[in-house]
Design a protein that fits this description.
Ribosomal Protein L25, Chain P; seven-stranded parallel β-sheet; five-stranded mixed β-sheet; 7 helices; 28% strand
Length: 243
């Protein structure tokens, strides 16, 4: 529990900076991009209150004790641990869409609380990301904005054969599948193919490994639409079931 509580209105309006895990009570040094945001975007000054989060479930309120050109020092007054929701059981393996659409996909899946995002390499992939640093920054900004406690794991890139040997149940989202049935909260991986869809051979490999095929809609969906819609369906069903 927090040792010092702000009013609900103040806490809700307070901005968040992301720090390295684990966040602890005491003085925390903040540098690099987060310090830049705090100093030049949020314009923090000595004595200002700020919320810190470490992306691993710990957050706390603190006050700025020292500012320099490239860093901040914040005294954390108390720590709160946020539990993972049932949507953290979801992994999403999907072909990476072009341009900024991949960023949009990562941003929204982070807001939904998905536990893991895996770029999928398949026969019709238009893009196979080799570096995910930009997407990690996008996920961090999304976590701060929506006040979640846990960052999703991003990567590694997986291919169809890797997924076929995956320890978790697989659900392929495809128009040819049956209606969606979310079942009880459990670790599963949702598989979303590229713009041209998975090939018959790829579907066959996954089906031989026990993958189910389910349908979100009768029409063709863009990669990010299918990924976000599927995650939202499962997250909503599981969270409502457990509430």
């Amino acid at each position: 529990m927090l040792e010092r509580r702000e009013s609900m209105a103040t806490t809700q309006a307070m901005r968040t900076l992301l720090v390295q895990a684990p966040l602890v009570v005491g003085e925390v040094e903040i540098g690099d991009e987060e310090a830049h945001q705090g100093l030049h975007v949020l314009r923090l000054r000595l004595g200002d209150s700020i919320r810190l989060a470490d992306g691993a479930g710990r957050c706390g309120l603190g006050r700025v004790m020292l500012t320099s050109r490239h860093s901040l020092r914040v005294a954390v007054e108390g720590i709160e641990t946020l539990e993972k929701g049932p949507s953290a059981l979801l992994s999403v393996a999907c072909a990476a869409p072009k341009g900024d659409r991949f960023d949009d996909l990562v941003r929204t899946l982070t807001e939904l609380g998905v536990g893991r995002i895996l770029p999928l390499s398949c026969a019709r992939s238009d893009r196979i990301p080799t570096h995910l640093d930009r997407q990690r920054r996008v996920a961090g900004e999304a976590l701060k904005q929506c006040r979640r406690g846990h960052l999703p794991t991003l990567g590694p890139v997986v291919d169809i054969r890797t997924l076929a040997a995956w320890p978790e149940p697989l659900i392929i989202l495809d128009r040819a599948g049956s209606g969606v049935s979310t079942g009880e909260p459990r670790a599963i991986t949702l598989v979303i193919g590229p713009e041209g869809g998975l090939t018959e051979e790829e579907v066959g490999v996954l089906a031989a490994a026990g993958a189910q095929t389910m349908r979100l809609a009768g029409h063709v969906l863009r990669i990010e639409t299918a990924a976000i819609a599927a995650a939202a369906v499962w997250a909503a069903a599981w969270e409502n079931r457990s509430s």
